[in-house]
Amino acid sequence: xxxHWPQLRITxxxxxxxxxxxxxxxxxxxxxxxxxxxxxxxxxxxxxxLPINNEFGNTAKVHLxxxxxxxxxxxxxxLYESVDNANRLQAxxxxxxxxxxxxxxxxxxxxxxxxxxxxxxxxxxxxLLKLLTSKTGVNLQQRLELCTYLLNYLGERSSSLPPFxxxxxxxxxxxxxxxxxxxxxxxTKTFPFREPVNSIARLAEESVDxxxxxxxxxxxxxxxxxxMAGVDSISKQRKIALSFRDCHLLDIFKLSxxxxxxxxxxxxxxxxxxxxxxxxxxxxxxxTFDFIGSLSDESGDDNVTVQVPTIWRxxxxxxxxxxxxxxxxxxxxxxxxGKVLQNIVQLSSLRRTLFSSNERQAYLAEIxxxxxxxxxxxxxxxxxxxxxxxxxxxxxxxxxxxGMMALLADFTIHSLRAYEFSVNxxxxxxxxxxxxxxxxxxxxxxxxxxxxxxxPKITSAFIESRLEYAxxxxxxxxxxxxxxxxxxxxxxxxQFAIICRCEYDKSAQLMITLFDHDxxxxxxxxNPPSADVNISVVRLTWLVTIIGAAVQGRAAFSxxxxxxxxDGDLVCRVLKxxxxxxxxxxxxxxxxLKLEMAFLYTLEQxxxxxxxxxxxxxxxxxxxLEKNLGLQDxxxxxxxxxxxxITNLKYWAREEKLIDQTLNLLNELxxxxxxxxxxxxxxxxxxxxxxxxxxxxxxxxxxxxxxxMRSRTTFYASLMxxxxxxxxxxxxxxxxxxxxLTDTVRxxxxxxxxxxxxxxxxxxxxxxxxxxxxxxxxAISCHTKMVYAMLFxxxxxxxxxxMARSVELWTGCTDVVSPVLKLLCELCQNKQQRLQFEMSSCxxxxxxxxxxxxxxxxxxRMLALPAVQPENAYRERYKNISSCFATLKMAxxxxxxxxxxxxxxxxxxxxxxxxxxxxMFMVIPESDxxxxxxxxxxxxxxxxxxxxxxxCFLSNVQPDVFTSILRYIQQGTVSLxxxxxxxxxxxxxxxxxYLYRRLTRATxxxxxxxxxxxxxxxxxxxxxQPSLLSEVLAVMLNAVIFDDVxxxxxxxxxxxxxxxxxxxxxxxxxxxxxNQQPAEKRVLFEEILMSLIFMSSIxxxxxxxxxxxxxxxxxxxxxxxxxxxxxxxMSSSMQGGSFSSLMxxxxxxKL
Length: 1151
Hints:
Elements: E1 8-17, E2 22-35, E3 38-49, H1 66-81, H2 85-96, H3 104-114, H4 118-132, H5 140-157, H6 163-179, H7 195-206, H8 208-225, H9 234-263, H10 270-287, H11 320-331, H12 337-347, H13 357-370, H14 376-389, H15 392-397, H16 401-417, H17 423-439, H18 451-474, H19 486-499, H20 504-523, H21 531-552, H22 561-586, H23 593-611, H24 619-629, H25 634-651, H26 656-671, H27 673-680, H28 683-690, H29 706-709, H30 711-723, H31 731-737, H32 739-754, H33 761-780, H34 785-795, H35 798-809, H36 814-828, H37 843-864, H38 873-893, H39 900-904, H40 909-923, H41 926-929, H42 933-949, H43 951-956, H44 959-973, H45 978-1000, H46 1017-1024, H47 1028-1042, H48 1048-1052, H49 1055-1061, H50 1063-1076, H51 1082-1092, H52 1107-1122, H53 1135-1150
Antiparallel strand pairs: 1-2, 2-3
Helix pairs in contact: 1-2, 1-4, 3-4, 4-6, 5-6, 6-8, 7-8, 7-9, 8-9, 8-10, 9-10, 9-47, 10-12, 11-12, 11-13, 12-14, 14-17, 16-18, 17-19, 18-20, 18-21, 19-21, 20-21, 20-22, 21-22, 21-23, 22-23, 22-24, 23-26, 25-26, 26-30, 30-33, 32-33, 32-35, 33-36, 35-37, 36-37, 36-38, 37-38, 37-40, ...
C-alpha cells in the first residue's frame, strides 16, 4: 500500500433507499499521520447523501435521485461510445454543465468511486481538472483532501483501471500539486503539497508493484510543472517551476537514471518494458524542463541548448549517463529506441559552460563513440546537435573523427538516396554538413577537416536523389511532391547552398551536365508533351531551384572570380529556359506553375547577390551573361526581370501564390535606390505606370478571387515608389497615374447615389475591396509631406464617403470592412512626418473627423449585430476591432492633430471615438483578450496614448469600466509580450501618478480651456474595489522579486506609486513574505525588500512621485536582478547599491 504518505482515505459504498428513491453513500474517512514508522488512525463512519455543497467530507445532506445518478453515468458512456453524433453532442453539453455546478466536486468524487464504466472516471477527472482553474475553484483544504484521496484511490485501483483513466488521474494529481506548491501551512511550518513527492520517489525504487504508477506520477508532475496550464500568471508559474527545479528535479532525474542503469544486463519482460518506457519519459521530461524560464520551443533546433543548473554538473562530467543511454539503445527493443535517442538528443545539447575544457572534450568523445545509424529521425537530430553545440576544432580533436566523418558521409548519401524518408530528417542531416562547411574558415588550413573529400559526394547524392524523386512523382510512385511545400524546400536549399560551395567546380559541372540533358528534351517537346518531357519538366524545376540555391551560397563566401564565372554559366542556362518557357506561353501552350516558382526563386537569389545596392558590383558574372545572352550590364538584366514580371502578371493572373511572389520581386527591386532609378527609366516600367488597369492585367479585375486581391497592395506600393522618384510638386503626373483609380471611385459613388436594390451587391463589394487595397498600396509609398498632401486632396471627400458608406452597409462582411479599416490605419500613420501639413491647412482635422466618423459608424452597427460563434469571433469581430484600436493609436500618437480645438468648438469627434473604444474593448471576453497578440498589443498601445494626453477621459468612464481597465493592465504587466508589458506599465504609471496627485493635492486644479473636466468615477471605482490596487502591487512585486523580468525598467516605473498608495498592504505583504521563509533566511529577505523600496519609508520624499523617484527604484530593480541568487533569488550585497541610488535621489530633491 501507499504507506509512505499521510493517510486520508475516503471510500464510498452505495446504499439505495427504495422508499425515497435516494442514493446514499456510506463514507469511511480515515485520517492519520505517519510518525516514527507507524500509522495512527481514527476511523469515522458517517452517512453522506451526495452531492453536497459543503466542503470535502462535510456531513451536510442533499438528496440526489437515483435516476439522476444513472443519467450521469450513462452520459459518460454515451460521450465516448455512441456512434450517433447528435447523442455525443448532447452528452458533451450536458456534462459540460457539470463543471459549473455547485456540487461539481461531490458529483465527480461519486463518479470516481462508483461509476459503472471507465469513462465515468475519465469524465470525473477531466471535470475536476477544469474545476481547479475555474473562477469558483476549489479551496485549499478541499484540494489537499482531494490530492490525498487521489493517491489512495490510485494505489488501490490503478491495476484495475484502463491506462487512459490512470493517466488522466495522474495528470489531475500533478495539477493539484502544482497549484498548491507554494501553499504554506503556518501551523506545521510545511508545504503540504510537496510532501508526497519524496514518498512517491521512494516508492518507485522500493515497490515493484507500484513502481510504474509512481514513475508515471512523477513524469506527469515534471511535465505539468513545465507548463502554464492552470496558472493565471507568468510570475507565479516561474516561482513554482524554479522552486520545483531547485527542490526535486535533480533527485528525480537521478532516480530515473539509476533505475535505468539496473535494466542493462537484466532480462526485461513486458511489464518491465512499461516501467522502462515510463523511466525514459521521466528522464526526457527532466532534460526538456525550462530551467531558466526561456520558454523555448522544441519544434525548432536552431541554437537549442539545455540550460541545466551548475549543481547538475556532477551528474554528467564522468560521461556515465550518456554512455548508459547508448548502451540502453543496444539492449532495448526497437519500439523504445526513439525515446532513448530523444534523451540522447537532449544530452548532446547540454550547455558548454557546464564543463571544463577537458571535461567537454571527454563528454564529446562519449557522444561520438555512441553514434550509430539507427532510428533514423532521432539519429539525424543527434548528428545536427553535434555541430550546433560543439566547434569544428573540438570535433577534429576526437580520435574517432575521421572514422565518424566517413560513416556519417556514407550514412548521409544513403539517406538522401532513400528519398522515402522524411524531408524533416534530411533537414537535420544537411544542417550538420552546412554548419561544418561554414566553420572551415575558422580552422587552420593545414588541419584535415576532410570536408573537401565528402561534401562533393553529398552534393552529388542530393542532386541525383532529388531528380530520382521527380521521376517517382511523375510516375505516381510516391504520394507527395516535395515541391508543393515551398517553405520546406527553401529551408533545405539554404543548407544546400553552403554545402555545394565546398569544391564548387565539381558540383557546378554536375548541375550543368544534368541541366543540358533535360533542357534538350524540353526544347524538343511537342504539344501535348510526352512522358519523357513531363519528367524533364519536373527535373528542370528541381535543377532551377538547386541553381538558385547555389547562387545564394555565394553571399556566404569571400570573393572568388572563378566561382562568379560558374554562377554566370548556371544562371545563363536558367534564363534561356525561362525565355523558352515564356515564349510558349504567348502561343497558348500551358506552362508549369512549379517551374515558374523555381524561376522566381532563382531570380530572387541572383538579385540578392548580384543586383542589390548593398553588394559590390561583380564583373565576371556579367561577362558570362554578355557572352551567352548579350546582357551587358545590370540595366540589361533588369529588363529581363521586368519582362518576366509583366509576363507573370499577364498570363498567371489566377495563381495567387505566383502573383504574390512576382510582386514581391518587383517590390524588392523598387526598394533599392540604384536599381529603382534604372527601373523607372525602362520602357516596360513606363508601360506599367501608364496602364495599370484590368484591361491590361487581369489580376486587377474585380472578378479576381479575394485572396489574389491582397497582392494589389504590394503592386501599387511598388509602382508608387517608382513614381515618386520623378514626382515633383507638379500634379499632372500624379493625377495621370491615379486616373484608373479615379474612374473606379466615380463608378462606386454613382452606384451608392443610385441606392437601388437591383445593384449587384457582390460586384460593388469587390470593387470597394480592390479600391481600398490599391489606395493602401499607394499610401504606403507616400513618404513625403508633399506627396501625401496630393494623396489626401485626391481622397477627400469621395473616398472617405465610400469608406463610411461601406462599413455602414456591410458591417458584418469582414471581407469588406477589413480592407477599409486597414486603409484608414495606413492613412493615419505619420511616418517620416508626412502628415505635418502647412499651417494654413485643415487637412489633419478633417482626417481625424473622418476617422472618428468611420470608426463610430462601424462600432455602432457592429455592436447591434447578433453574437457570432466562438470559432468565428476573431475573423468577424476581433480582427476589425483590433484595426480600430490601431487606427486610433496612430491618430492619437501622430502629433499632427490639435485635439484641444474639438472641445473648444463643440466638436465631439474625439469624445465619440474614445467612447467607442471603451464599448469595443468591453465586447471582447476576458478569456479571449490575451489569446490574440494583435488585439492585446493594439489595445495596450492605444490605452497608453489615451492615458498620456486624455487621462481625464479615463477618470470619467463608468466605475466598472475603470475597474476592468485596471485588471487588464494588471494582466498586461506580466505578459510574455514585451510590447504589452511596456505599454501596460507606462499606462499604470501615468494613472497612479494622476491618482496620487489628485488624492494628495491641497489646492484645486487649474482648468484649461478646451480640456475635459476631471471625473469622480475613477475614485468611486477604487472605493468600490479597495483591494484592486493591492492586487496589482502584489503581482508586480512578485514578478520583480522572484521572476527573471525581461522589461525591468518598465516594471519598476509604477512601483513607487503603488507602494505609496497601498503602504499598509505593502507592509503586511512584506511581513507575510518574510514569515514564509526559513528562519535563517528572513533577515536576508528583509534587507532585500528594504533595499528595493527604502525611500518609501522616508516621509520627506513621500509626496514626490517624480521622475527621479521612479528612476531610483528602477536602479534598484536592476541591481536586484543582477544580484539575484539562489535563495528567493537575492543577495544582500546590493544594499550598498540601493543606498547610493537613494543618496543620488535625495541630492536631486534638495536641488
